[in-house]
Amino acid sequence: MVIEFFHPLIGGAERQAHQLSQKIKTKGINVCVITRRWKGLRGFEYIDGIPVYRKFRILEFIKLPFSKFFRQKFKLSEYAYSSLFDNFHINNGSSQKKPLYYKLYQLYLCIQECCQFLVLTVLISFFFLFRGRDIDIVHCHIMARPFSIVTVWMAKRFKKKVIMKLTDSFCFEVLRRYFLHKLYLKMLRNSVDIFICINSEIREKLLELGFPADKLKSISNGIDLNRFPQADRQKMNEFKRQLSLPIKEMVCFIGSLRHKRGLDTLLEAWKELIKIKPDLLLVLIGREDNQAAYLKRMVEDNGLKESVIFTGEIKDVSPYLHASDIFILPSQSEGMSNAFLEAMATGLPIIATTVGGAKDALEHLENGLLIRYKDPQQIIESILLLTEDKELAERIGKNSRITAIEKYSLDQISDKYLELYQKLVTK
Questions:
Q1: Is 3.40.50.2000 the CATH classification of the domain at 233-408?
Q2: Is pLDDT above 80 for 179?
Q3: Of the candidates 188, 137, 136, 135, which has an alpha carbon nearest to the alpha carbon of residue 166?
Q4: Is a pLDDT exceeding 60 seen at residue 94?
Q5: How many angstroms separate the first and last alpha carbons of the chain?
Q6: Alpha-carbon distances, residue 133 vs 125, 127, 233 (angstroms)
Q7: Which of 91, 210, 282, 350 is the most exposed place for a label (fewest CB within 10 A)?
Q8: Annotation: CATH topology of 12-60+90-222+412-425
């Protein structure tokens, strides 16, 4: 398994890689994880019986003076660096002619990326030369990272079978923002034996970019059903009390507080919703990312503090799911959200935008409610429908649990990977 971050640095893709590694190991496959080295973490250790190699710490040996000044002066967003000749984007979405300082900073980033590419190539070559002789298959998670791309490219040079899992259709936009993005795409086309598409959007995007259909395989993310049993609606208030939450009908969101999650639209809808139904509670669970401060200001400015709770990142979200009446995911883009699968497994009625894995998994009014992105009125109508029609909410929740069992159990997903591994090594 190859992934840039790994336990204890945990996100959605990292959790999937960890769980899949454990499950595959129990089925008789030797698994190791190759990841980047981060400060404070060991270069090698066993995690749940899986050997983890943290060997590639990229040295930021090029330091351009005033780089922090450039970012502050031009209010550069995290995605401002699409290419040296693109428009100059700032946080408010406007564009203007690029100043000289910005061009210099772009040049600095380009030089740094090229140097990191060369360093990675050398380090990964040494790893496969001295440590990788017994590796038959390199299974890479998250495409839009130079670390992952260079690793699979070098793996192919050492005659390994290569699988690349794509976690989000947005990864193509992220990849395009690297200076070497055309080279990276060429390396992927030439090096990867099978691309794993976790939803239909990703598959369509790869076909649109000219990747051959016979290299694409659809395998979703999986969920450990034992960790997320069916919720008992009779014990919902008991869980609320254990979590020190008000005894109100509760709408739950789980995920990092990032712009693409659509939480500003959710709060816009919430402001109107509590005027109609004041006895509601919105709980936002997740790491406070690039939109957290703005969302908290929205809550403060609109007088929503009594009905909106920010919990921060929670390691075990299961009690919160058992305390919830509704799960909502109003995102602009998703791959196959872990939180979405966990809510399905728990048997919650789900409201989600028609993007990514939710679009594939949900049938409107059968096992969930599908809404448009950036449509506060649809959010209001959907929450009101589920809170007022308890019979419908219960039926949708039961059907979402059935869908999780039939299509997304970690056992089924790991079996699909084992079958794929077998085919690749016997080719």
A1: yes
A2: no
A3: 188
A4: no
A5: 20
A6: 12, 9, 53
A7: 210
A8: Rossmann fold (3.40.50)
